[in-house]
Specification:
165 residues; alpha/beta; Arc Repressor Mutant, subunit A; Dna Ligase, domain 1; 2 domains; 4-stranded mixed sheet; 6 helices; 15% strand; disordered N terminus; FUR; repressor; Fur_C
């Protein structure tokens, strides 16, 4: 599920953390980003507003949100860095190994797969991840990658419906 701006701070309060302006800014930055940011990119963004922010605070905040299930983490997109996202609904991640961007592909097929797995194991699926890796074959310049949300002007890519839907 997509978390609202208030959802991330509420999760931190639930964990007993004091809501400092820096933590609020980290939550706000994370909830507004659809590019699956890294801890470093969140740090760079929030540090512009709060110069005293430490990278440790960013990592601790992200770690707490992960443990609470308020966000998820993804492995590398070819950049050896962990990426984070607030979309905890079942979906497909598309990772570009050229520009290291990750975007969401909303698909009804992923929900069907989750149902199939639950039936097979006879238990509720707690989490799962489907990631497809590709390269920007159309462009050698990573800034021109068609999966780059800043260029594509979209927050998530939606698959086209099949005839069965």
């Amino acid at each position: 599920m997509h978390r609202t701006k208030s959802g991330l701070p509420a999760a931190l309060k639930q964990a007993g953390l004091r809501m400092t302006p820096q933590r609020m800014a980290i939550c706000e930055a994370l909830s507004q980003r659809f590019d699956h940011p890294t801890a470093q990119s969140l740090y760079d963004q929030v540090k512009q507003i709060y110069p005293s922010l430490s990278l440790t605070t960013v990592y601790q905040t992200l770690d707490t949100l992960l443990k609470l299930g308020a966000i998820t983490s993804l492995g590398s997109a070819g950049d050896d860095t962990i990426h984070f996202e607030v979309n905890t609904d079942p979906h497909i991640n598309l990772a570009c190994l050229t520009c290291h961007r990750i975007c969401d592909l909303e698909s009804s097929a992923i929900r069907e797969l989750e149902r199939e797995v639950q039936e097979a194991i006879g238990s509720k699926v707690l989490s799962g991840r489907v990631v497809y890796y590709s390269e920007c074959l159309e462009h050698s310049d990573p800034r021109a990658c068609r999966w780059n949300p800043a260029i594509a002007g979209q927050q998530a890519i939606t698959s086209s419906p099949t005839e069965e839907e």
